[in-house]
Amino acid sequence: ENAISFYEDSLQFNIINDAELNQKLYQDLGIAYLYVKKYDLAQKYTMNAYDLASEKHNTNDIAACLARLAIVHMKQGEHDSVLFYFEQAIQKSMTGQDGQGF
Questions:
Q1: Which residues contact 20 (CB under 8 A, 6 or more apart)?
Q2: Is the pTM of this model over 0.70?
Q3: Rg (CA), the chain
Q4: Backbone angles phi, psi at 97, to 5 degrees
Q5: At what angle are helices 19-35 and 59-75 packed, to 10 degrees?
Q6: CB atoms within 10 A of CB 8
Q7: In sequence order, what are the residues at sequence separation of 6 or more whose Cβ sits closer than 8 angstroms to the Cβ of residue 81?
Q8: Is the pLDDT of residue 77 over 80?
């Protein structure tokens, strides 16, 4: 809970509005909420991180967010969503940062 409070405060005080920093904070908040089993908030913050990673075309972070979303859905017993997000994560990670694949 202390970590969650720290990350939320960091987002609030990020006066320079650095998108990369916000993305990392959202990722960390998603992980923290996953850990304390607040899956709706874990999904919300992971989606925020995903959106920012997508804007920057950061394939590694996009894949990590998709994999984390799969885990959130797994914890909720939503197996169709687990499969969907893991397939998306694998495809994105195989594409690579340059879009050319391995």
A1: 52, 56
A2: yes
A3: 14
A4: -65, -30
A5: 20
A6: 14
A7: 69, 70, 73
A8: yes
Residue 36, SS3? coil
Residue type present at position 11: L
Residue 59, pLDDT > 90, answer yes
Domains and CATH numbers, the chain: 2-95 (1.25.40.10)
Q: Does residue 49 register a pLDDT over 80?
A: yes
78: Cβ–Cβ under 8 A, 6 or more apart, which residues?
Answer: none
Q: Is the pLDDT of residue 102 over 50?
A: no
Rounded CA gap, 48 and 99, in Å?
Answer: 23
- For residues 71 and 34, the answer to whether their CB atoms sit within 8 Å is yes
Q: Span 29-57, mean pLDDT?
A: 95
Tokens representing residue 2 in the block: 């202390």
